[in-house]
Amino acid sequence: MVLPRLFLARMTSVTATRKAMLMKFRFWARSATIVFLIVVVVFAWSATLFAQILAAISISCAFGIACDAYGVRHAVALLLICSAITFTVENIGVVTGLPFGLYHFTVGADLPQIGVIPLVVGGLWFGMGYCSWVVAGALLDHADARLNEKGNVIALPLVAAFVMTQWDVVMDAPSATISGAWIWHKGGAFFGVPISNFFGWFSTSWLFFQAYALYLRGQERALNSARAQNREFRSAAVLLYLSAGLTHVTPWLIGPGGDSVDGAGRVWRIEDIRESTVAVMLFTMLFSSTLALLRLWRERLDSANASGAFCDRLLSSNVDAGGL
Predict the structure, then answer these.
(1) What is the DSSP string of 168-213?
(2) Dist. CA 315–CA 321, nearest whole Å
(3) How many CB atoms lie within 10 A of CB 233?
(4) pTM of this structure
(5) Which residues contact 254 (CB under 8 A, 6 or more apart)?
(6) From residue 136, how far is each of 21, 52, 115, 132, 241 by CA, in Å?
(7) Neighbours of 105 (CB within 10 A)
(8) pLDDT tens-digit profile of 198-227?
(9) What span, in angstroms and rounded, lies between the C-alpha atoms of 88 and 211?
(10) What is the DSSP letter of 105?
């Protein structure tokens, strides 16, 4: 009897050590995530090399979360689907003006391009697109893992397209009219941005989200993997999405003022653009992200309650069996 007890004690000690190491790893991982998100909020709004590095890290994190959810092969498939659709539509848009309006990019002119579109643009479409996909999935009761259930294959792409377009409504005027990352040739009523741009964003987003849904609907193993994904990864995707909106608070508070001229020659006050951007962000991106985080928190509570109820039933059955 001594050897089994020693073996059991040793195994218990090893388990406790591994649990302590896991808790320590989670603490540092959460701390690093919080620090990174704060850095994004403070610095990502400016057109600097550091901001581009932050964007690259964020896109890589979104891809990593997709890999954890569906597996590497399916995450790569989603990346290829998004890239094929968005680069096609963007190239058509620059040449014809459809569906966004007449524009051209100035950012990334010295970087590799696909057609006339800088390669980084595709990364931003995928990174923010996947985060929007997770936000919409949380709002629809984890629909991104239940695409084989009735209605989700239609509802999720629509909601995700709205969530994605919210980001464009927030960031397009500061990026185009103030920073000049792209130029709208005829300007537009929304601080130099034409309303056609937002319809273009919605339709383009819906196209690749609908392609996502149709592709993943028949991938049962991938959907099962997504259902089992840790909620902390899903929360991280929501927070990445939110940080892309909150970064506009920084220039509103401390950024320079003055005037900015759009592509049609119309003059706009930078302070007005910054303040309107924050107002729109608070009641679109922040609202959607808050709802998504609350849904994830409720899922966690429901899971904990279900586990507690199961343990209670198990204990009760054992007591009843002992009485017999």
Answers:
(1) HHHHHHIIIIIS-SEEETT--TBTTB-HHHHHHHHHHHHHHHHHHH
(2) 10
(3) 16
(4) 0.89
(5) none
(6) 34, 26, 31, 6, 11
(7) 17
(8) 999 999 999 999 999 999 999 999 999 999
(9) 14
(10) E
Spatial distance between the Cα atoms of 180 and 123, rounded to a whole number of angstroms? 19
Q: What is the C-alpha to C-alpha distance for residues 280 and 166, in angstroms, rounded to an integer?
A: 9
C-alpha 106/C-alpha 254 separation (Å) is: 25
In angstroms, the CA 160 to CA 294 distance is 17
Q: Is 18 exposed, middle or buried (0-12, 13-18, 19+ CB in 10 A)?
A: exposed
What does the pLDDT look like over 141-195, one tens digit per residue? 999 999 999 899 999 999 999 999 999 999 999 999 999 999 999 999 999 999 9
- In the chain, count of helices (H) and strands (E)? 11, 6
Strands 267-269 and 259-261: antiparallel
Closest residue by Cα to residue 166 from 217, 131, 137, 192: 131
**Token pair recorded at residue 294:** 């609350």
Structure tokens belonging to residue 54: 């932050």
